[in-house]
Amino acid sequence: MPGYKVCVVGGAGGIGQPLSMLMAMDPNVAELCVYDLTIAMIPADGVAADLGHLNKAAKVKAYAFDKDARAAEVAGECLTGCDLVLVPAGVPRKPGQDRAALLNINAGIAKNIVEACAKFCPEAVIALIVNPVNSVVPAMCELWKKAGHDPCKIVGVTTLDCVRAEKFVHEITGAPVGDISIPVIGGHAGTTILPLFSQDDRAALSASKVTFGKKGVETVHPLGDLSPHEKERLAALTPALKDEIDAGLEYASRNEFAA
């Protein structure tokens, strides 16, 4: 098996560095691209050099671009041939900042990358770790679809919610962490997050409730039986989640990839 080419966009950042290390250590990864900006506090070259010293098979290369550069114009070598593009990017929300303002900033950052992926690696799975995920992911799916591509290739990463839920159950019950599986549905912010604690049947079901394949998301599993409390919470979170999804779709309606 030749292995996969993976790019971590924002690979020199606080989330990007450990994520890049995990990718470099994965035996399925043959080539890893650490992509960041030239203004990053820690240079992408340094991160790639350190990862390249791991006693693993992955070949690691750094790419650093100016903050004003269009990825679709400069990132061809980095993105071409990628099977997976991980995007831990965007700016954190400032105290008192309106969510719509954060969406416009971070959706613009995501759009720059996703537009380049549409040009250089349209078959790649693009995993977005860009807040607000509830709005950014629908926006990018819609833009991807406008460009004639399969939106099942665009996914939001909310694994952190599952990991936290499973750790909380471990701390309360003492059950082995590896035997706990808590699906988390809804969204990835505030009250839109709904852990289904009633479905903890010791790892019989993937916490993500999604099966991936070469085409991206191939199966979205049903929710299964919910407890009365979970049904109540699901009904309560739905309007808020819909509003955040609609905000993303509204962004997509005002934007499109450059020709």
From TrEMBL:
GO terms for cellular component: cytoplasm. Residues 5-156 form the Lactate/malate dehydrogenase N-terminal domain. NAD(+) binds at G10, G11, A12, G13, G14, I15, G16, D36, N106, I129, V130, N131. This is Malate dehydrogenase. Substrate binds at R93, R99, N131, R164. Pfam families: Ldh_1_C, Ldh_1_N. One of its GO terms (biological process) is malate metabolic process. The active site is at H188. SUPFAM superfamilies: LDH C-terminal domain-like (SSF56327), NAD(P)-binding Rossmann-fold domains (SSF51735). Belongs to the LDH/MDH superfamily. MDH type 1 family. GO terms for molecular function: L-malate dehydrogenase (NAD+) activity. It comes from Emiliania huxleyi (strain CCMP1516). Keywords: NAD, Oxidoreductase, Tricarboxylic acid cycle. InterPro entries: Lactate/malate_DH_C (IPR022383), Lactate/malate_DH_N (IPR001236), Lactate_DH/Glyco_Ohase_4_C (IPR015955), Malate_DH_AS (IPR001252), NAD(P)-bd_dom_sf (IPR036291). It catalyses: (S)-malate + NAD(+) = oxaloacetate + NADH + H(+). Residues 158-199, 201-250 form the Lactate/malate dehydrogenase C-terminal domain. The keyword NAD applies. Homodimer.
